[in-house]
Design brief:
The chain is an alpha/beta fold and about 250 residues long. Helix content is about 30%, strand content about 20%. The protein is globular, with a radius of gyration of 17 Å.
Amino acid sequence: MAFREDDDDVNIGENEEPSESEFHMNRINSIESTVVIRQLPSQGIAFKLWLPATTLVTLLDNYRRDPNTSPLTRTFSSFQSDGSDSSSPINIFELGSGTGIVGIAAAATLGANVTVTDLPNVIENLKFNVDANAEVVARFGGKVHVASLRWGEINDVEVLGQNVDLILASDVVYHERLYDPLLKTLRFLLLEGSKREFLMAHLKRWKKESIFFKKARRFFDVDVIHCDDPQEGSRIGVVVYRFAPKNQTF
């Protein structure tokens, strides 16, 4: 979840306020392991766990357990790595990683090489969480790297290289001023390789977010692949979208 340092006072809503406990234990049943995540609520919203990240972790867990019934199967079917032994693991970038739980879970459940990214002020906590789960990730053949990445700064992406198959993100469509920088980064990543896709978990909060999707559809085919049921007190649940370069055949 990539936000600028002056966004710390944003009110996300009472129903989404995470626990104030510093450590969060997330059980991943398909690998019979627990991922431990440090939250630092006082440092801002990028240091907290949010519902869309949990949705992606659950989908990754369920995919490893039973790919035949997973909405992720069509995306992952083109990759050789399936979370077991493979000479060619999936290479994944995660944008706006926040606490890093999605990237860490992807590395463990898919046996993938994952690069988690966020703004410079978030990197220290990202590294802490990656290190805390390194043993679990390595046990299942995955690797996680940490890197700073500012949306809209193509030089940042170029430094990371173009060895990427899939891009992931959760809860990144939030501030309107970040829509264009995010789309610039996505256009560079996706249009450079026609077989790449972007999976994004999103919880709609305001009507203005439709501006992002309207702009995105100029460049990408955007499909809904999964919808969570709303939590109690909410009208909508988390939606997972797949973005692909226009004219790509699935």
